[in-house]
Design goal:
homodimer; alpha+beta; SH3 type barrels; PX Domain; Substrate Binding Domain Of Dnak, Chain:A, Domain 2; five-stranded antiparallel sheet; 52% helix; 11% strand; transport (chains A, B); cytoplasmic vesicle (chains A, B); phosphatidylinositol binding (chains A, B); PX_dom_sf (chains A, B)
């Protein structure tokens, strides 16, 4: 019997990819579910049959997950993409994604611990699918504002890890389509996905989902491992202990590798830490693995920013690789700058493993690590005296206010910047071009006058016209030189800020738990001693949050100083060059 | 019984002027036709009653013409005007005027001598109504391209001369509404109107309308008057004889005068020629009188550019007067620069009359002048030998090609410039403003962080934000500083070029006449001697046209050199200032 489905978003088929163009609200008949790679074969009312992104349609009954998905997927469509430039930053702008894809816990960052059905349902899915399209969507924007692109056709839920990642290393099969969705969509998905994945790691512990950080707050004995994360009192307040020399690394020299006798291809990046100066090779899937480990281990205490989305922009292989590398570099630099993350075993392993065997061993060890989720707080040791719960709550409130406000500010810049990008690459240069043409046309009319002594004027006017054509080109190319970095930095911060609701959520939950301490004692759910312990541990959590905020602030000040300087520097050059060109053109005219 | 009418164009009512907003195609009921001043009281389907520009609606039966029109008119609307700047140059752009308002002779400049009914019908109208809405419209663009604004609400057809001119001197009753129509609309109207008015002057002579320049070509004896317009052979070919010292004058010091015990007010301008340095006073109506005289006398040989339209832009009295004065100055300067016009009795009278009596006498004399229309050629004496008709025709063709091509080129600049003006005063500054606001907003979020050592960054970001707000303002104000003059000059040339089809048309007609010379002799319509005379006289006409073209070219080269220099100079300043401001902003950020 035929399975009907509802189309959620418009999709423009790309010629030659046997895709099917569908409109939002249209009903289609599913003719083949086992295409894989996030694609589905469907038939529309006119009997036309073609491939449609799975996530663009809503089924009456759930789909089975496909193993080996994607290997047979067609090149994704770029049909709905205007231009590389536009589409790239379209991603930054709050897209008009349907609100219903926002799960309740996505809409209210502070209700993150409510057992949300969709959220819950997604956890298993998530466990087997690090990309977590569904989860990503449901919690796409933890602030609740709708700022997510269309779901991405190119993510088969439950697709077996190694398989889909090869697909993702294989540029050819990604390329264009990604453009219209990439950047923000991805970043925010990971931002959201992280919230969910954090739940997963916590879910490893029974009864957690109900009581959040209880596991840490109430566990009888904190096993003293070799891990000790110290917090000192600095000038600005609680701070992590920073290493003597700042760790850093260079991501470079992407190489295309193949496996299975060249049947599958992937990109390998060379990562060289400044400590050993010895390069190690990593594929995107390894970065992704590292991200998952850091998320599990530190996510409750430290916002782990999203990895650059798999589908970064770039119509062509070179562009694609360059862009992904640039963003991986940015992500690695941020991780290196974090004292806790950079000094962790798993991060060190990633940067300095000696050989395949070493890597495999380290991998297994990291995956077996039990000190994850809220248990990370058990390794944190503040040197300062305990804070009373009231102060803890005040700090927590302050941080959530600030991060929310900054998230709004960053999004405003991204929106405005995106519009400015469009104008600079669209109408504005066209206009300067037409001004240039108009001058040149009039000049050539003058040349036809047959009047003597015309040439000085006509040459000068032609020159002026050409100058405005040059200005047109300059205007169109400028955003790549300055706005690009302003957008990238703000986009990075948008992703980072998207992680805070979850991080702060853990603290909120802990605070609430402490608040009901008396009641719990009264009903003898816990002992009086437990209650004292909880207060002590919530104080530790607060110090950790403060240390993290101070780390965030110092980095923020550095980053925004840098990016603003770079932006203004390039802007100055831009306007000076134009002025110079025009001065040149002006000198061609004779005063009579 | 109720008179129904059809709305021709959208009209947005201005608040407080009891106007009525109407949409194109809407049917309204006329509730009061005797408002005057080009306004009508109408009621829409929703029963709302208000004033609508008379020319915006189409009646089933013609309206009576109102004497004293406008005296009771409300302040005309600026409701459909976005901003003074926009509306001003909207006028330059080819507006979407209904094509049917183009009379056939308007569509084909070279059929200008066909006796066109509408053209003919308008002549009388024109005689009694120098503003000639109808005529102006019908021949609005002699090149045939539709480039006329909406008809102007503020012209009571047949309004008695002295009346309307007082009205037009009285700024209050003009002002705002004019904006949306002025400039080009007016200029081209006069350009077109001139074609018609030339016919009038020629029509003074029986049988002319059929045979164009016959009067001159075939008149038995050319009365040798004191007037002798010599043409010399210069380097560039035939040239007028230029005076030793270039005549020039300054139009300044507009004063509001009143008459009829202050019931009527008008503006008087002080005109001071560089010859006597003695100022004389003139009202707009006097300039208009001069224009009509020059048109009658020289129009066949010399394109007399349109006077600045009565309804020049300016929402406020000061703006209005300033703008009109600027344009009157431009017109006078151009007339002064013309050797034939500037040395004519009527022009000298205008600049140097001693007293009221002197003025009145000179006026009467000028109005009695018989050497007008094509008879001006009878006063022209070329020093060179006669040209053969073939060469005459080639020259004529060349000039018409060039002037047509230049007219297109000029219009292109006006269109592009108009769009650029809109962008610079509209979306662009808004965008820079939003960029500035975005920086400042993020800065104030940062200030709320409670983190130490924040101030340097936040101050710098606020500074940068303010800088972009300043840039926004600069962008919005720049067009007034440079584009304005580029537009004014091109608009002036557009008006001038609009006169050429008529001037060249006279020559075409003459050439055709000579061509049929043999036939005329054969049918003994003319004698063999007449035929020789015709050829000789057409050669004289050709020399005059060549002298005029050479005069046009040398002025054109001077004008465009000047305006391009001025434009580029201001553009350079503009971009340099922006660069400097941004350099300032950049220096606020600290490198760490």
């Amino acid at each position: 019997m035929a399975l009907k489905a509802q189309v959620l978003y418009d999709f423009a088929a790309e010629a030659g990819n046997n895709e099917l163009t569908v409109k939002e609200g249209e009903t289609v008949t599913i003719t083949n579910q086992s295409i894989g790679g996030g694609w589905i074969e469907a038939q529309n009312s006119r009997g036309e049959v073609g491939l449609v992104p799975e996530d663009y349609i809503e089924f009456s009954k759930p789909l089975p997950s496909f193993s080996g998905a994607g290997t047979t997927a067609p090149t994704p469509s770029v049909g709905n993409v205007a231009s590389a430039d536009l589409s790239f930053f379209d991603a930054y702008a709050p897209a008009s994604a349907p609100a219903q894809t926002q799960a309740s816990n996505g809409n209210d960052p502070w209700s993150v611990w409510n057992t949300d059905p969709s959220g819950g349902a997604n956890n298993n899915n998530w466990a087997s699918n690090p990309e977590g399209t569904q989860t990503g969507k449901s919690a796409a924007d933890p602030w609740g504002s709708v700022s997510q692109g269309h779901p991405q056709a190119y993510q088969g839920p439950g697709a077996e890890d190694d398989e889909w990642d090869d697909e993702w290393d294989d540029v050819k099969s990604s390329g264009g389509y990604a453009e219209s969705e990439s950047g923000d969509g991805g970043a925010m998905q990971r931002g959201g996905a992280q919230g969910s994945s954090m739940k997963i790691s916590l879910n490893k512990f029974p009864g957690f989902s109900k009581s959040g950080p209880d596991l840490y707050l109430l566990c009888k004995q904190l096993a003293k491992g070799k891990e000790r994360l110290l917090i000192y009192m600095g000038e600005v307040g609680p701070v992590w202990s920073y290493p003597e020399t700042q760790l850093d690394c260079v991501v470079a020299d992407p190489k295309k590798g193949t496996k299975m006798y060249g049947l599958k291809s992937y990109i390998e990046y060379q990562v060289t830490p400044n400590t050993t100066n010895r390069p190690v090779n990593h594929r995107y899937k390894h970065f992704d693995w590292l991200y998952e480990r850091l998320l599990d281990k530190f996510g409750s205490a430290i916002p782990i920013p999203a990895l650059p989305d798999k589908q970064v922009t770039g119509r062509f292989e070179e562009e694609f690789i360059k862009m992904r590398m640039e963003r991986l570099q940015g992500w690695m630099t941020r991780m290196c700058r974090h004292p806790i993350v950079s000094s962790s075993d798993v991060f060190q392993l990633f940067l300095t493993y000696k050989d395949e065997k070493d890597w495999k061993m380290g991998k297994r060890k990291a995956e077996k690590d039990e000190t994850v989720g809220v248990m990370i707080f058990s390794t944190i040791e503040p040197e300062a005296t305990d804070l009373d719960p009231v102060e803890v709550e005040q700090k927590c409130e302050q941080f959530s206010r600030f991060t929310k406000a900054m998230d709004d500010g960053v999004k405003e810049i991204l929106t405005v910047g995106n519009e400015h990008w469009k104008r600079c690459t669209g109408p504005l240069p066209k206009e300067y071009q037409r001004i240039g043409k108009a001058f040149q046309n009039l000049s050539s009319v003058f040349t036809s006058s047959g009047y003597q002594g015309e040439s000085t004027l006509t040459d000068a006017m032609t020159e002026a016209g050409k100058t405005y054509e040059e200005i047109a080109q300059m205007v169109a190319e400028q955003p790549k030189k300055d706005l690009h970095f302003l957008m990238e930095t703000n986009n990075e911060y948008k992703g980072l800020l998207g992680c805070f609701p979850d991080t702060i959520g853990v603290h909120k939950a802990a605070i609430d738990k402490v608040k009901e301490g008396d009641k719990l004692v009264a009903t003898s759910k816990i002992t009086a001693h437990d209650k004292v312990t909880m207060a002590k541990r919530v104080s530790t959590m607060s110090y950790s949050l403060q240390a993290e905020m101070n780390h965030f602030h110092s980095n923020r000040i550095y980053d925004y100083n840098r990016v603003m300087q770079l932006y203004l520097e390039e802007q100055v050059k831009f306007y000076e060059t134009i002025a110079e060109k025009l001065r040149q053109a002006h000198s061609q005219f004779t005063t009579m």
